[in-house]
Design brief:
The chain has about 450 residues and is an alpha/beta fold. It has helices spanning about 5-15, 20-25, 50-65, 85-90, 140-150, 170, 185-190, 195-200, 225-230, 250-265, 280-285, 300-315, 320, 340-355, 415-420, 425-440, and strands at about 30, 40-45, 80, 90-95, 100-105, 125-130, 155-160, 205, 215, 240, 245, 265-270, 290-295, 325-335, 400-405. The radius of gyration is 24 Å and the shape is globular.
Length: about 450
């Protein structure tokens, strides 16, 4: 019996067996519907070509036999469309490996799309704090980074997009400074063209900054109200006057652009939802992030999740568009055996990077491929003539972790706002130093001295 996991391998075998027929087509789409059943979409001109139509019929019969319940009956397995672009609307699409003009269309129940990567933003630098699992100190690290950047005179915009587990704003704002509304309010009001009613009251400045500013946009306002009811609506697409629809990701991008126009920040720090869902995919792939921090605990759950994501990028042939923005962060490095812990993170990160993201070549010596290790851009990737890869020991590689040390004084968000108000800068440096220096290196300024 064929299972979902066997669809692509068996589909590939069938297409290879009918390669001559496939080569006659201008394009071929493999449409996998919401239930995981496969149909073929071909140019409508094929419908009038009896010879090719008959060959496609044979291909469809073979496909139905191989995929069983995951294929439509042969007589209903072929659809005709005027253009590939029209057929791809509303679906995640990417080229099928080993074929130059065959694409897989995935019709998904959610709007999350890890296979389409937005170009890096050219305005304010955007940094996404992301993790496969929660409880890794991601939000705490973001708050400390915002504090340090503001201490150095930077204008920092912070967005709490961990909508299903909000709380970042409490680490940067005392209760009396919480704004009346948040991101969920804007997304819900935007559905009925009422977003302007909340925009001016959804952001507050932190009192923690010294020479710069921290502008905080929380997930919800001071009074969450019917938060669960609102949360169930934020992912919805918005109908336009011309009958088209604007998905929630595009709406969020519009909000971010408006906030940046209002604040004009040096950097935007985005706290993403953990896991592989539509919120996380939007934060990581859709918002034009210049840097995506991959928080990692040393353990099988972390690496299993990242391996799934990296492999998806490889299959979708978008790894090259994403890999240069990534950097591993070793989270909650323990007070004892820190060296061994970091070596474990580095080793496992290297394994999955080399499997899916690095090119299959041996990198030349460090001095031949990039800037000196002390350069402030040292974490940025080295573009090689022969390919894109790194030695496991290369400190400037994306897989080489920036450590965030566990410390009891930063173990919880509840007291972080008060903690940062009287914090010793040297303590911040000891815990978050490499992370803060790395983030500051993309701001075209000198590294932040905490």
């Amino acid at each position: 019996m064929t299972t979902f996991e066997q669809i692509l391998p068996r589909l590939t075998e069938v297409l290879k067996a009918h390669q001559k027929t496939v080569d006659l087509l201008e394009w071929l789409l493999i449409n996998r519907d919401l239930n995981g059943r496969v149909r073929l979409i071909v140019p409508e001109a094929i419908e009038m070509d009896e010879a090719i139509r008959d060959q496609m019929g044979l291909l469809a019969e073979r496909l139905a036999a191989q995929l069983g319940p995951h294929a439509y009956p042969a007589e209903a397995a072929i659809l005709y469309e005027t253009s590939r672009e029209l057929a791809c609307q509303g679906a995640t699409s990417y080229p099928l490996e080993r074929f130059s003009h065959v694409w897989l269309l995935d019709r998904l129940a959610t709007e999350g799309n890890w296979a389409q990567i937005a170009a890096e933003t050219q305005g304010s630098r955007r940094v996404v704090f992301f993790s496969i699992k929660g409880g890794v100190g991601r939000s705490t690290a973001l708050a400390a980074t915002a504090w340090a950047l503001a201490q150095a005179g930077k204008r920092v915009l912070v967005l709490d997009l961990d909508l299903e587990s909000p709380g970042l704003s409490s680490s940067l704002l005392p209760p009396e400074r919480q704004p009346a509304f948040g991101i969920t309010d804007w997304l819900v009001e935007d559905l009925v063209d009422n977003a302007a009613a909340v925009f001016d009251n959804m952001m507050a400045t932190s009192d923690l900054s010294r020479d710069g500013e921290i502008y905080v946009v929380p997930a919800h306002g001071a009074d969450p109200g019917e938060y669960i009811s609102k949360l169930g609506r934020v992912w919805m697409s918005k109908g336009r006057a011309d009958g088209s629809r604007e998905n929630w990701s595009a709406r969020l991008q519009r909000l971010l652009a408006d906030l940046e126009a209002e604040v004009r920040p040096d950097v935007v720090l985005i706290d993403s939802r953990a896991g592989i869902d539509e919120v996380a995919s939007t934060c990581v792939t859709d918002l034009g992030a210049n840097l995506v921090l991959l928080f990692a605990l040393e353990g099988s759950q972390t690496w299993s999740g990242y391996r799934i994501l990296f492999e998806h990028w490889r299959r979708a042939q978008v790894a090259e568009a994403m890999r240069e923005r990534l950097k591993v962060v070793a989270a909650l490095v323990p007070e004892t055996d820190r060296i061994a812990y970091l070596e474990g993170v580095r080793e496992h990160a290297y394994e999955i990077f080399i499997e899916s993201l690095y090119d299959e070549i041996a990198p030349p010596p460090t001095e031949a491929i990039g800037p000196a290790p002390e350069d402030k851009q040292r974490w940025r990737v080295h573009q090689l003539v022969e390919g894109w890869s790194f030695d496991e020991a290369d400190e400037g590689a994306p897989h080489a972790p920036w450590p965030v040390n566990w410390h009891r004084s930063f173990a919880g968000l509840r007291s972080l706002q008060g903690r940062l108000a009287v914090i010793d800068a040297q303590e911040v440096k000891a815990i978050f130093g490499p992370l803060i220096e790395g983030v500051s290196s993309i701001l075209d300024t000198e590294n932040v001295d905490v």
